[in-house]
Fold HTH gntR-type domain-containing protein.
Amino acid sequence: MLLYQVIRNHIQSLVAEGRLQAGSKLSSERALQEQFNSTRITVREALARLESEGVIFSQKRRGWFVTPDKLKWHPARKVNFNALAQKQGFVPSTEVIEIQSPSNTHQVSHDYFDSKPVYKLTRARYLDGRGILIEEIYCLADRFEGLEQQPLNGSITQVMEHSYQVNVSHEKCEISVTVLPDRAAELLEKNSGAPCLKVQRARYDEHQALVDYNIEFWLHDAIEMIIEGK
Amino acid sequence: MLLYQVIRNHIQSLVAEGRLQAGSKLSSERALQEQFNSTRITVREALARLESEGVIFSQKRRGWFVTPDKLKWHPARKVNFNALAQKQGFVPSTEVIEIQSPSNTHQVSHDYFDSKPVYKLTRARYLDGRGILIEEIYCLADRFEGLEQQPLNGSITQVMEHSYQVNVSHEKCEISVTVLPDRAAELLEKNSGAPCLKVQRARYDEHQALVDYNIEFWLHDAIEMIIEGK
DNA sequence: CAGTGGTCTAGACCACGAT
DNA sequence: TCGTGGTCTAGACCACTGG
């Protein structure tokens, strides 16, 4: 058996047997290196595999930790992130990174909003203090005038319903696997190049008019999407 | 700028400018090492990042290649894989790996089919000769008696409709990012530990009875899922 | 300030692919 | 058989975290 597989299996079984709890810190790379009479390159190979599998994760220069359970996410349902996360036993929080004044210079504005001015809202979401999602939300400036004065750390869908009488009736969703853009990696304190699930959603009202366009970058090990179709 | 980022950017721009066509082979790792006065470790760091991004891919010991376009896949629609792939300019093919005689010893049989005997069909699917998907299909043995005599390299949905008068009316789909199981990696000639998109689908007929249960492992750089909801 | 992870050097051996 | 990628050794320096 390959050495890095031995190290991998060892850590994996520690986690499986519960001897390493979710969120707890692993031994340092150099300690593992000594424990297995190996080198850091090989140890890091094992750690990288475990990270791909979603068993462990790293935060920049802080160390390696056991990955908590994944959030089960229903993108098509208009469920509140906070409520859903709480129901699954997490402590959720949301941080508004920035809201950009109406502008028509975004690519998204050109592609989806007929080059009209749009708001761009950037948020980060956390579970138990761990950053797991960066999202960008674009919506028409004149339809959602004064959006920057609304509470933006909760459900945008609810704000649209209650303050603007706009209802989302259906959506089109594109899902792919890629890496975090550098800016998102920074915000989530991940190394550049961390894999992620990218979800792009165009949401429409009952008149087939585009309500908003969202780009979400989820840590690949933090989410399981559930979709009920047809 | 970090050295591996320099190498990464160099290859990325070669691809972006079209000087490296989709499917074509990159220089060998040792050639790149010399070109950048570096070491193979660093070169491989750059290649690994590009692979995560979906720009290049490797096949076991064969080398590194430029990733072709992604297949746009609509899991909820009853579209034929072959037809969809052809419409997007690919040459698709399907290989039956094995069909297991009815058995009630699978975990899936226990969890989803009330421990009744099920068929297990394993298939691989290819685009332009590149293996991109391993899928396992489970269905009730007594409902699909003689399934092993049906043509199994096309659409299973169509076989179910035409030969068994069973129609899929809705489905529940779970999507997550993980790594290929070793068996799947072998079949697709990928290194163990290659990232993938795992799609589990339970499909039901109009009487809410489970028709089949599928587990699909897609190469992470080969698919973009498109879902229209609500 | 000590220890950690992130990056990098300069080699090596082996199994497998292409030829 | 030769070159390739896959694995591995034995170090090094730096930036940053945490005490």
